[in-house]
Amino acid sequence: MTVEESSLLAGVHRRRNLLTNEWVLVSPHRTQRPWQGQIEKLDAITLPEHDPNCYLCPGNVRAGGIQNPVYADTFVFDNDFAALRPEPMMSAGYRRGLLEAEAESGLCRVLCYSPSHHLTLGQMQPAAIRSVIETWAAEYAHLGAQGDIGAVTIFENRGAMMGASSPHPHGQIWANRTVPNELSREVRNQEAYFQETGKCLLCDYVATEIAERERLVIENDHFVVVVPFWATWPFETLLLPRNHHATLSALSTDELEAMADVLKKVNVCYDALFKNPFPYTMGLHLPPTDGGRHPSFHFHAHYFPPLLRSASIRKFMVGYEMLAGPQRDLTPETAAERLRSTI
């Protein structure tokens, strides 16, 4: 980036999100504003390796009355309180003038990363993290092969601040009959770029970030983690394979190990930033399983952490964000520099 370009990005400006085609307002001067808002209470909690009251620990009975097996690796089960159900709850669509609704169906699964209650993904051994990735791949393939599933969303909510109901290391897998909004936008914009240029949008974006290096946080031979140019959340990151892969099953043995490496490092990096367990929502975007061909799709993982200035001050998406569009104070370049400093 030239001096002139840096100067332009030092003032109030907006940036386009390549994946959604939406704009993000950036107001760097607002990092200096005083804070008299909400301060989160931080509780120092030491977790046991096994909690007899945890619904996800091996051998325990879940809230729905089903007993978990004494599992030793990953463990996947149907969510006892699923948001989606296999059979549609509506027998037909609903339309009354401008008002429209339709039936939706699907499956919701829970994936326990480890039998150890006290671990996080960043504290697990690389081999155990690789097992999580392989389970993600298997679940995506299995659920997506069912004829009535249009998309599979794999995600993790970490920390009470992000609504996690249990500290046990786990994530969720939701399989919809339809393709959800965010994925639809990403598919549409990647496909439009491919039709216009004959190239993959995210392959070109990876090359751009590797060349500029200003927003690069973590890299190895096969993956990069960047604060995206269009990041909305203060310390948002994007995990991307260097090679063009649509799904996890396409990864080689070396690439699986490399992905486990960056998944571990990004968690360690986050926790080191404010010297406290870092809450986030992480999600994998994989191509729809709607039967269509999606050659332009490049899989990736989003990390959306809410923390702003410290472990006790978070970014609130209110006011302008809810009524107009996303806005951030800290530039993505500054956020990347601060994250890199923890490594």
Q: Overview of this structure, please?
A:
With 343 residues, this protein is of the alpha+beta class. The protein has a domain at 189-340: HIT-like (HIT family, subunit A). The chain is 26% helix and 21% strand. It is built from seven helices and 16 strands. The protein has helices spanning 3-8, 126-144, 181-197, 201-212, 253-273, 320-323, 332-340; strands spanning 13-16, 23-26, 75-78, 94-96, 99-101, 106-112, 151-158, 170-176, 216-219, 223-226, 237-241, 280-285, 300-304, 307-310, 313-314, 327-328. A hairpin with a 2-residue loop joins β4 and β5. α2 packs across α5 (253-273). The longest helix is centred in the C-terminal third of the chain and has 21 residues, at 253-273. The radius of gyration is 21 Å and the shape is globular.
